[in-house]
Write a structure and sequence with these properties.
Blueprint (H helix, E strand, L loop, with lengths): L2 H6 E3 L5 E9 L2 E9 L4 E4 L2 E2 H4 L3 H14 L8 E8 L3 H19 L4 H5 L31
Parallel strand pairs: 4-6
Antiparallel strand pairs: 1-2, 2-3, 3-6, 4-5
Length: 147
């Protein structure tokens, strides 16, 4: 087994092989694992993703890469587990989308073009600008008074 093969699939604690990738958006970071064997589903921080994400927009962001490649019909007996931290729920859902797209590309390279076109493989780097001293916010100066 070459060095690149060991990075793609490792042995999980319950001896099931998995493919792992990291997704990020703003300050949210998601570690996504596609585990072979088991029932199809997405588990986020030990909860079902429909319990973890309250809005349909956030759930749709998580499901988007799967919808592009054909959903769980293309991935029979594959469980997706996610550990996500940082940021808010919208940033976390889009970090999962990014990581899941990367996992799917590792699984089948021909899906790359389908996932790249809607922008699922691109990390959104925008972050909140830091506050500077002497200012009220990042750029907002105190109100000027003539006297």
């Amino acid at each position: 087994m070459s060095n690149s093969d060991t990075k793609k699939s490792r042995i999980h604690a319950n001896d099931a092989k998995y493919i792992e990738a990291r997704g990020a958006r703003k300050t949210s970071v998601a570690r996504v694992r596609l585990i072979s064997g088991g029932k199809p589903g997405i588990i986020v921080n030990n909860k079902d993703y429909k319990q973890y994400f309250k809005t349909d927009v956030q759930r749709a962001a998580v499901e988007a890469p799967l919808a592009v490649v054909g959903g769980f019909k293309e991935l029979p007996k594959q469980t997706i587990t996610v550990r996500v931290s940082g940021g808010g729920l919208t940033g976390q859902s889009e970090a999962i989308r990014h990581g899941l797209a990367r996992v799917l590309v590792k699984l089948k390279e021909e899906w790359r073009k389908q996932l790249k076109q809607p922008g699922f493989l691109k990390r959104d780097p925008r972050m909140v600008e830091r506050k500077k001293y002497g200012l009220k916010k990042a750029r907002r100066a105190p109100q000027w008074a003539k006297r």
